[in-house]
Structures are given as structure tokens and as C-alpha cells.
């Protein structure tokens, strides 16, 4: 009788383990997989601990316009684009707290495109890209509570409620993800190049009358600044090149004045097109993002600025940073495949 109980217990444990493994496999297969924020968040956890010196935070302008491979290859800067589509500042604040659980960045570079252009307190269009890549934690739940109305929390949590029906639309990418190793993920540094050209007219205005951010954006900007000051993280606030409009330009003027008051580096690079060498017939993917060639021009500009403003080490040749060498090879492979 005792032996039967032991065998029964073993079978029960085996069944539970099988169910857990099956459920985990199903979740990995069905979960959303985009390079608009989800991949950027997931692959952070594969990065060697405390190797990221510069974290680029904010909207897709960061992971499309900032070429981490070039920053490494030319300047030896160990950078990561930890950003997501149209990310508001309240989500950026929780991203900042999340990356600091695993990394000790010396500098954060914060993008102001989304706070200047999208003004609602709850922005649902790209919430999945911002939310689903983070590991389960109280920090993730706090981000969700700040980002959705109370009646909509259960629309996004637990994550399985959102993607359980994806079995009807699975692609090869979903199956590849099942077998992707931590080493492979570590070679991804957030940068997602675009390979297409579009033509635009160069904006020709410079706002002088500042327009404040929304109350909610200002609240979380203050939280970001306080967190960085408390943790010895230097700040560099930027606007990346895009085809801007007048009203957002007034908000950039407000941020510039705020930074001057608080001793934070700020640069609106929509005012430096010529210095950067941006060609409006060749260097844009769409009105909001640079293509690969444009991103390389802009990354060189940012790299020079980072090296000039901050005391950043050059880790080239250090074995702990070999994943950045692999990142260079991965980006070059994409460029070759695109024929650029």
C-alpha cells in the first residue's frame, strides 16, 4: 500500500510538471513577438549583468534611429535601445526601474517624441508592444496600473488572455522563438534598422513660445529625473530627426528650458539636420523614422556627443562584451540581406 502511494505521488508530480512544461511551451509559442518593443524588453534579460553603459529610452525613434552596432564598432560604447512604440513617460519610468534591476547604466538617453505628440492619459494603440516583453513583477503591474483605466486591467493581465487565440495565425518566427538561446538573444541590442527610402520637405520653423507637457507626463518626468539623481545616473534628453510640426516643437522648447534649469543635457536634433548631414530625399523611412543610412549618420552624431559629454569606457576587446561584437555581425547580415 505504501509503495502504491509513492508511485501515485510520483505520477502526480510528473503530471503537474508535464502540465507546467506544456503551458510554458504554449505561452512561448503563442506570445506576441514584435521588434517594436516586445523583443527589446525580452532580450534585456539575456544581456550580461552590468554591461550596459548607455540605455536609450523612449519611443521607436530610439530603436530605429540609434544603431547600437555602430556605437560599439566606432566608439566602443556598450549601449542598448530599451524602447517601445510611442512609449509615454509613465511607461518609460517603469522601464528605467526595470533595467536598473539588472544593469547599472551610467547614462540614460531619453527621447521626447511621444510626450510631445501624444497627449492622452491612457494610450492604448501600442500598449501591447510596451507591456508584454517585461517579466512578471510588481514593477510591471505598477506600470500597467499607471497605463490603463482600472476597468481595463484584465484586458492585458494575465498576458494569456490577449494571445490565447493566436494559434490561428502562427508563423515560422513563433516556432523559431521556442528554440532561441540566451546567447542568441544577447546579440540583440534593440536596434531595428529599416530599409526603404521616402522623400520629405525639410521643416523650417523654430518655436519660441514654450508649451508645457501634460500633467501626467510632467509627473513622470519628475520621477525619472529624481530616480536618476538618486542613483547617480547621468541624463541626456534628445529629440531625434523627424518631420516635426509646430505644436510639438513648442513642447521641445519647454523641455529645453526645463533642462537648462535642472542642469540636464538637452539636444533637439530636428534643429541640426545640416550638421548631421540628413538628406531628405534618401535618409528617411517615413516621416517619423530614419532608414538604415540615416540612422548611421545620426548615430555618429550621437556617439560624438556621448563621448564629448560623458566619461564612458571603451570595452572593445573585453571578453565580457563579446555579445556586442556579435551584434555588429547580426546587423551587417541584415544590411547584406537587404542589399544596402
TrEMBL record:
SUPFAM superfamilies: SGNH hydrolase
The protein's name: SGNH/GDSL hydrolase family protein
Organism: Butyrivibrio proteoclasticus (strain ATCC 51982 / DSM 14932 / B316) (Clostridium proteoclasticum)
Amino acid at each position: 500500500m505504501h509503495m502504491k502511494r509513492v508511485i501515485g505521488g510520483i505520477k502526480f508530480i510528473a503530471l503537474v510538471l508535464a502540465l507546467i512544461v506544456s503551458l510554458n511551451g504554449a505561452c512561448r509559442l503563442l506570445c506576441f513577438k514584435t521588434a517594436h518593443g516586445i523583443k527589446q524588453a525580452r532580450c534585456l534579460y539575456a544581456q550580461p549583468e552590468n554591461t550596459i553603459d548607455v540605455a536609450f529610452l523612449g519611443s521607436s525613434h530610439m530603436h530605429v534611429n540609434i544603431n547600437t552596432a555602430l556605437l560599439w564598432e566606432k566608439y566602443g560604447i556598450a549601449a542598448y535601445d530599451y524602447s517601445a512604440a510611442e512609449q509615454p513617460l509613465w511607461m518609460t519610468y517603469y522601464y528605467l526601474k526595470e533595467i536598473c534591476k539588472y544593469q547599472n547604466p551610467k547614462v540614460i538617453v531619453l527621447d521626447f517624441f511621444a510626450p510631445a505628440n501624444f497627449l492622452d492619459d491612457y494610450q492604448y494603440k501600442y500598449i501591447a508592444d510596451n507591456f508584454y516583453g517585461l517579466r512578471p513583477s510588481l514593477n510591471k503591474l505598477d506600470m500597467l496600473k499607471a497605463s490603463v483605466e482600472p476597468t481595463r486591467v484584465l484586458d492585458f493581465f494575465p498576458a494569456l488572455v490577449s494571445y490565447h487565440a493566436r494559434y490561428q495565425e502562427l508563423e515560422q518566427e513563433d516556432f523559431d522563438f521556442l528554440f532561441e538561446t540566451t546567447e542568441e538573444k544577447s546579440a540583440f541590442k534593440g536596434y531595428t534598422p529599416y530599409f526603404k527610402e521616402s522623400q520629405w520637405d525639410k521643416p523650417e520653423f523654430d518655436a519660441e513660445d514654450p508649451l508645457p507637457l501634460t500633467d501626467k507626463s510632467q509627473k513622470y518626468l519628475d520621477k525619472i529625473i529624481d530616480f536618476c539623481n538618486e542613483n547617480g545616473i547621468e541624463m541626456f534628453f534628445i529629440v531625434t530627426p523627424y518631420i516635426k510640426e509646430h505644436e510639438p516643437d513648442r513642447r521641445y522648447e519647454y523641455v529645453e528650458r526645463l533642462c537648462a534649469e535642472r542642469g540636464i543635457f538637452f539636444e533637439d536634433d530636428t534643429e541640426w539636420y545640416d550638421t548631421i548631414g540628413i538628406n531628405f530625399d534618401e535618409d528617411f523611412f517615413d516621416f517619423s523614422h530614419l532608414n538604415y543610412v540615416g540612422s548611421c549618420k545620426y548615430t555618429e552624431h550621437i556617439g560624438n556627443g556621448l563621448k564629448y559629454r560623458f566619461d564612458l569606457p571603451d570595452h572593445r576587446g573585453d571578453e565580457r562584451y563579446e555579445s556586442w561584437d556579435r551584434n555588429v555581425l547580426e546587423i551587417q547580415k541584415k544590411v547584406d540581406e537587404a542589399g544596402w
